[in-house]
Design a protein that fits this description.
single chain, Rossmann fold, Dihydrodipicolinate Reductase, domain 2, 2 domains, 8-stranded mixed beta sheet, 24% strand, globular
């Protein structure tokens, strides 16, 4: 078995991993990945450009190699895989360099910031025989996996519509707008739950803190099956909310990730028809039992297993490109609406009415003026 094949969590194979993973970017979110990889016995190195942060991490993980140069990581043959949690605008270049260096890659969402670059990265990973995984965390959440199972088994009936809210006050970014920062998770889940791509996309938003960066967006996705979904994201919201609602013709499901206990509820509401009028029959919510697996831990384990077995990840590069394509279409819709609103003011309507059956001779001008008697 190759070094890459041995780079799997001790918890899975009940033996210490021979190969280790390099964590690239150990900031706000990267620290959580560092913790999980360390607890899984797979953390081989930490790479971060912030000297102070790197010193703190060295004190916390003294047995781990800490470096400030990405080139050092790429040149280390004892590190067959990298986990990238840097600003989104750097993802594309860092992933490409890692793949060219022969590394397996797990990159936080989004894969990169363009569909073309994403497709090139997927092709490169395939050509080099490397694992490419995107950190769409919700696909490692017990509630989402259970929700997918319920839909596949027909528990909710025919899916009619889906909506998601991902709202908070901050964390405000300047590298990408709210659509690219918050919406990838929800778009990934919606595409996966429905198993299809939208044939129509509309989006609108508002730029309040920076003229060129959207702080709030609402995206409407329409699917060939007739399902519609909307994704509302904002970092200018008075309270935090992370909620996904799936409405079927038999039951409705609500995933609330901020709930401490019952994160997934089923509502067996029904609609009765009386005298040709729809009447809503409400029913009590039914909590769905879930295991207590930490989604990020499960995601890290999954990557390590894929490195070992060479199986494609659940959220592979292809899935990442699908999400990118929807994000790009939403972005294009935002831009088109902005151009429409900022374009020339429409001409003032004619100050008269002429029925479509009326005939107006060439050279005749019609306008406001006094009405003459006959």
């Amino acid at each position: 078995m190759s070094m890459q094949g041995q780079g799997i969590a001790a918890k899975t194979f009940m033996e210490p991993p021979a190969a280790r993973v390099a964590m690239v970017g150990a900031g706000y979110w990267g620290k959580n990945l560092v913790r999980n990889l360390h607890e899984l016995g797979a953390l081989g190195a930490i790479c971060d450009s912030n000297v102070d942060s790197l010193a703190d991490l060295k004190a916390q993980y003294p047995e781990c190699r800490c470096v400030g140069s990405y080139a050092d990581v790429l040149q280390d043959t004892n590190l067959p895989a990298v986990v990238i949690a840097t600003p989104a605008e750097t993802h594309g270049a860092l992933v490409r360099e890692a793949l060219l260096a022969g590394k397996d890659v797990y990159v936080e969402k989004p894969l990169c910031l363009s569909v073309e670059e994403g497709r090139a990265l997927v092709d490169l990973a395939l050509k080099r025989g490397r694992i490419l995984m995107v950190g769409h965390l919700l696909w490692y959440h017990p509630a989402i996996l259970k929700l997918k199972e319920l839909i596949v088994n027909g528990e909710l009936g025919r899916i009619q519509y889906i909506y998601s809210n991902r709202l908070n006050l901050g964390k405000i970014r300047r590298e990408e707008n709210i659509l690219w920062s918050f919406a990838p998770h929800d778009i990934s889940v919606i595409l996966g739950l429905l198993g299809e791509m939208p044939d129509s996309v509309q989006a609108q938003g508002g730029n309040y803190l920076h003229q060129q960066i959207a702080d709030v967006t609402v995206s409407l996705l329409s699917f060939p099956s007739g399902v519609k979904a909307h994704v509302f994201v904002s970092w200018l919201h008075p309270f935090k909310e992370q909620k996904l609602v799936v409405v079927g013709d038999r039951k409705m499901a609500v995933f609330n990730d901020l709930e401490k206990k019952d994160k997934l509820l089923l509502y067996p509401h029904s609609i009765a028809w009386k005298d040709r009028l729809p009447i809503a029959n409400r029913a009590e919510a039914q909590p769905v039992p879930l295991d207590s697996t930490e989604p990020l831990r499960a995601e890290c384990e999954h990557f390590l297993e894929c490195v070992s077995t060479r199986r494609p990840p659940r959220t592979d590069g292809e899935e990442g490109v699908r999400v990118l394509s929807v994000l790009q279409r939403c972005q294009d819709s935002l831009a088109n609406k902005a151009m429409t609103l900022s374009g020339p003011v429409p001409a003032t309507p004619n100050p008269y009415f002429a029925h479509e059956s009326a005939f107006i001779h060439d050279g005749v001008e019609i306008g406001e003026g006094p009405v003459s008697g006959t």
